[in-house]
Amino acid sequence: MWKKASITLLLVSALIFGSGFSHANSDSNVTSVPKVYYTTDWKNVDFQELFDRILQQYKDGQKDGITKQPGTPVEASPAQPDSNQQDVEEQRTEQTNDSTLSEFEQQVVDSTNAEREKHGLAPFQIDETLSKVARMKSQDMADNNYFSHESPTYGSPFEMMQQFGVTYRAAGENIAKGQRSPEQVVNAWMNSEGHRANILNANFTHIGVGHVANGNYWTQQFIGK
């Protein structure tokens, strides 16, 4: 009984401190809602290590007096587009410069703002520097073949923002992989609790979006100014 209570306490603490782990899988060919899993193999968990990690993340979030809560990854089952579709996606992802949004990226912003307006929230303003950072994060995931908020090149999303001179009162990040359209990726994020919370966070005022066609990596970065 005590053991169960301890496990429950750790889970609650993890969610309170913004470090709950979730993984949402969606099949790009199916319209059903993606499932979100909050499970682990408790037999192999080092609870002291887990507690120490939660405590450290909480302390890191307190340093700036803000809530730093990146969303957890959303990954779609891989699909093999035909060559014509691949050409279209690559064209839609091309940017005229580092800060201009591609067609796909603008559609993500528009769909995200539509969701905010449904809930009575002000639409996000596009931050060009943040969009450049978000695109670099997606490119970094594609180049280095990883799928995580923690970049081997830039560190955490918040460290990466700071490296490029982005300042904020609050910040967050959503990432996704495999979705082949803006509609698919925004739907996947909205059907995942953590990502939805970032999109509907009233403390966030500005957004940056980055999409890389190679592997279909998507990044949303949010800040509150």
Automatic annotation (TrEMBL):
Task: Give a yes or no for keyword Signal in this entry.
Answer: yes
Q: Which UniProt keywords apply?
A: Signal
The residues forming the signal peptide are 1-24
The record's section on Gene3D superfamilies has: CAP (3.40.33.10)
Q: Which InterPro entries match?
A: CAP_dom, CAP_domain_YkwD-like, CAP_sf
Region feature (Disordered): 63-121
| Compositionally biased tracts (Polar residues) | 96-112
Q: Does this entry carry the keyword Magnesium? A: no
Q: Which residues form the SCP domain?
A: 110-222
Q: NCBIfam families under this entry?
A: spore_YkwD
Query: Entry's PANTHER family?
Result: SCP DOMAIN-CONTAINING PROTEIN
The protein in question is named: Putative YkwD family protein
Q: Which organism is it from?
A: Gracilibacillus halotolerans
